[in-house]
Amino acid sequence: KKETVAPKAESPKNEVKYTVQAGAFKSQKEADALKKKLEKKGYKAYIKKISTTKNAKLFKVRTGEFADRADADALAEKLKKDGLKAFVTAKNEK
Q1: What is the pTM for the complete model shown?
Q2: What number of CA atoms fall less than 13 Å from residue 88's CA on the CB side?
Q3: Which of 1, 50, 77, 91 has the fewest C-beta atoms under 10 angstroms from its C-beta?
Q4: Which residues contact 54 (CB under 8 A, 6 or more apart)?
C-alpha cells in the first residue's frame, strides 16, 4: 500500500523571504531616479509605496528576492560599495 503525498506548491527553500532596500524617499521622483539608476546597473528594482501617519507617503526602493539571508546580505554589501545605504529587509515588511 503506497501513500500519496500531495505536491507542495512551493518548497520552503525557494520561498522569497528577503529583499534589499537601497533607499526610501518622500518623493516619488527621487525614488524613480534611484530605481532607474539600479536598473541601469542591471538590477531588477521596484518601488514599494507606504502610507505613514498623517497621510504622508514613503517610497521605498528595493531590489532582489532571496530565500537565503546570506545571499541578500551579499547584495546589500555590493550596493554599499556603490555608495548606497542598502540593507536587508523582510520581503513582506512594509
Answers
A1: 0.79
A2: 17
A3: 1
A4: none
